[in-house]
Specification:
- This protein has about 475 residues and is an alpha+beta fold.
- It is about 50% helix and about 10% strand.
- It has a domain at about 120-340 and about 375-465: Cytochrome P450 (Cytochrome p450, Orthogonal Bundle), CATH 1.10.630.10.
- Strand 1 and strand 2 (about 75-80) form a beta hairpin.
- Helix 8 (about 135-155) runs parallel beside helix 17, helix 9 runs antiparallel to helix 13 (about 265-295) and helix 12 runs antiparallel to helix 13 (about 265-295).
- The longest helix is centred in the middle third of the chain and has 31 residues, at about 265-295.
- The protein is globular, with a radius of gyration of 22 Å.
- About 45% of the residues are buried.
- The chain binds protoporphyrin IX containing FE (HEM).
Length: about 475
């Protein structure tokens, strides 16, 4: 094993940073591709034109090609597109790809030590502890906490007139997140924590990071991290003595089967990251589901019927699996508009793919967006068609790595069942009581941006009509 893999496996961050400072840029001259405009490279394609750019580049160069300027200005890297590339990167045989160097560009100083940027045996040990927080009983109790918050939030939205749904959803999920993740009751603390959290999110998207002045988003994000850190450290002891059902309390108590548990700073790092990992991804999913069902009223009626058939005022854990059409709808929204459209990694050794050697120290990107629209795997991929996930059609089952909204391999999303639960509970309260409408015509296109996450670019104006 190379020193750097050893350093990552033992979370020896000083050694990792030393390696990073002395790392040489890789020579990618033998890899096909068009590095775009001087200085800006392909950044505009990623931001505004990703589908077209990736499809045209794939047709011209094949499943591997280079790019410039994604993440840090001036950096070259390599795209691997399609299920084979996804498999190579996500299975990560021989530990040749690193998550730390892939995600550090975005997370440094804001989500240090997040589970997603840990590697190898250190990651495996942390994940083992975290897993208990996502077992059936835990999700059951999260459901009980989130349900009334979602219900009263939806009921408080303006009715019968267009509402910018992205903003209202974000606020609602912030309130839900404070309760479910931190155990904070709505009030003064919630506003302070929600604002700190929003500042951190903006910091992640700031391309200048610590090179920018103190009033730039990154600096505000670092302050936000401090605010939430203080809240967590101030409350760890009391949560250990008197735990609630929230995730923060659970992380204070969690151990793996060998009795290993998190230190205080690890609790802080993982609580912070969970807030982040859950928030925008679920907001993004709800936006695309609501767009799709507002433009497909007949399907919305079918979902409503499925939810009303339960004849219940409150959804319980065992009801979740009976909501089959609702489940396909969520899957289809995640296919068409995966919240995390691309996933970054970094090579620590030379890697062979499709006849090319990707040298060590290369940035590598894979794309859920590209795989989710490949005509080789999906019938009419641009059409919203939830029944493609029915057992009879099972279009997602041709290749294990064609459908990756939650990633795959060692870092596959830990919160996927949590997310599905939250979306189902939300739809349960919404569709039984309201019709969602849009001024857009039936089957209209979704106006959205892929970066930093998939969000509607027009704020998603929708109306909610009481039934
Ligand atoms: C629909 C909503 C969600 C989507 C689409 C999503 C997507 C993803 C993806 C693609 C990854 C892997 C990224 C990579 O490999 O680079 C990931 C990792 C992760 N997600 Fe999610 N996520 C969602 C919701 C959640 C929620 C609700 C939670 C927590 C409650 C969560 C917790 C995590 C964690 C902890 C990881 C890191 C796992 C690891 O590194 O071992 N996610 N998510």
């Amino acid at each position: 094993m190379l020193d750097i893999q050893e350093a990552l496996s033992t979370n020896n961050i000083p050694a990792v940073r030393r390696y990073q400072r002395h790392m040489k840029s890789p020579d990618l001259s033998h890899i096909p591709g068009d590095c775009g405009l001087p200085y800006l490279g392909n950044a505009h394609n990623l931001l505004f034109n990703f589908e077209d750019y990736s499809r045209k580049s794939y047709d011209k160069f094949g499943p591997i090609f280079k790019f410039k300027s994604v993440g840090t200005i001036g950096t070259e890297g390599v795209w691997l597109l399609g299920p084979d590339g996804n498999r190579l990167v996500l299975q990560n045989e021989g530990n040749k790809f690193s998550n730390f160097f892939g995600w550090d560009v975005a997370f440094k100083g804001l989500f240090d030590n997040a589970l997603l940027e840990q590697d190898y045996s250190y990651h495996k040990a942390s994940r083992k502890i975290m897993q208990s927080a996502f077992k059936k009983e835990a999700i059951q109790s999260h459901l009980e906490i989130m349900s009334p918050v979602l219900r009263s939030g939806i009921d408080s939205w303006p009715k019968n007139k267009p509402v910018k749904t992205l903003r209202t959803l974000k606020n609602l999920l912030l309130d839900t997140g404070s309760k479910v993740f931190l155990g904070v009751e709505t009030g003064k603390d919630t506003d302070k924590i929600n604002q700190a959290f929003v500042d951190i999110i903006y910091g992640v998207a700031d391309p200048f990071k610590d090179k920018g002045p103190f009033f730039f988003p990154y600096a505000k994000g670092v302050k936000g991290r401090k605010t939430i850190s203080n809240f967590i450290f101030d409350n760890i002891d009391s949560r250990r003595r008197n735990p609630g059902k929230d995730l923060f309390s659970q992380l204070c108590l969690l151990t793996d089967e060998d009795g290993n548990k998190f230190s205080d700073s690890e609790i802080r790092d993982q609580v912070l990251f969970l807030l982040f990992a859950a928030h925008d991804t679920t907001t993004s999913t709800l936006c695309s589901v609501l767009h799709a069902i507002s433009c497909n009223q007949q399907w919305q009626d079918e979902l409503r019927e499925e939810l009303l058939e339960l004849e219940k005022q409150h959804l319980e854990f065992d009801d979740l699996s009976t909501l089959v059409k609702t489940g396909w709808t969520i899957k289809e929204a995640l296919r068409m508009y995966p919240p995390l459209g691309v996933m970054p990694r970094f090579t620590l050794e030379d890697v062979e793919f499709n006849g090319y050697t990707i040298p060590a120290n290369s940035q590598v990107m894979i794309s859920a967006v590209f795989s989710h629209y490949m005509e080789e795997y999906w019938t009419n991929p641009r059409t919203f068609d939830p029944e493609r996930f029915s057992p009879e059609r099972a279009e997602d089952k041709k290749d294990f790595f064609q459908y990756i909204p939650f990633g795959g391999g060692a870092h596959k999303c830990l919160g996927m069942h949590f997310a599905e639960t939250q979306v189902k509970v939300f739809l349960f309260h919404l569709l039984r009581n309201y019709r969602v409408t849009t001024k857009k015509p039936e089957g209209a296109d979704y106006k959205f941006r892929w970066v930093p996450l998939t969000f509607p670019s027009d704020g998603l104006p929708l109306s909610f009509e009481p039934l």
